[in-house]
Give the backbone structure.
Amino acid sequence: QVHVVESGGGSVQPGGSLRLSCTASKNTFSIHSMGWYRQAPGKERELVASILRDDTTNYADSAKGRFTISRDNAKNMVYLQMNILKSEDTAVYYCKAILQYQRGGPYFQHWGQGTLVTVSS
């Protein structure tokens, strides 16, 4: 069963832009939080940006001023707008969601399959 799906990755030149999308399952009753992580070759997975139920956001230092996370509650989606991309941004980007499937039920953490972003000239 697929709970979270990412899309929007691709290849772009330095200084370019990409917009990533993440969609949570239609069976989702409530979303606690959604966020974006990335993993570059030879590095550990790291947080890029996250957004909570109350719209509180946080960003990695490397993303501040260039990336923007937002969401569309009606569509169960979260987006990551990435501008002024650098070669250092090259990585597989993963969406993480903490979801509830029924009223009063527990919350579960899910990871998407990842989408590749390549920044090169």
